[in-house]
Amino acid sequence: MIARLENTRLSPGQVSDAFRIWERFVRDPAHRLYDPRHEGCGLWACCPPMLDVQAILHIVVHTLPRRDSRRLQARLDRIDECWRRRPPYA
């Protein structure tokens, strides 16, 4: 299902890239404060646009079959809990 989504609406490998980028951003204790007004250069290899990363993950969660969607959402919730537990300014 993800491969079909990547081939029709996204780019091949973009879902795993988005998941990896979001997880690395959230778990890195030295990550920058997230400010959507300052997205950096916008290149995925350098300064990935977090709004795009989150949009891709949102699309995938809402496109997958219910069971797979719940499993992916549970993984994302665990990552997001790390964000809520440790704010970037603490």
Q: Which structural class is indicated by helix and strand composition? A: mainly alpha
Q: How many helices in DSSP terms?
A: 4
String of helices and strands: HHHH
Number of domains: 1
Give unreliable regions as ranges: none
Mean pLDDT: 83
Rg, Cα atoms, Å: 14 Å
Helix content: 55-70%
Note the beta-strand portion: under 5%
Number of strands: 0
Shape: globular
End-to-end distance = 39 Å
Main sheet, how many strands, which sense, barrel?
A: none
Structure in words:
The chain is mainly alpha-helical and 90 residues long. The protein has one domain. It is 61% helix and 0% strand. It is built from four helices and no strands. α2 packs across α3 (50-63), α2 packs parallel to α4 (66-85) and α3 (50-63) packs antiparallel against α4. The longest helix is centred in the C-terminal third of the chain and has 20 residues, at 66-85.
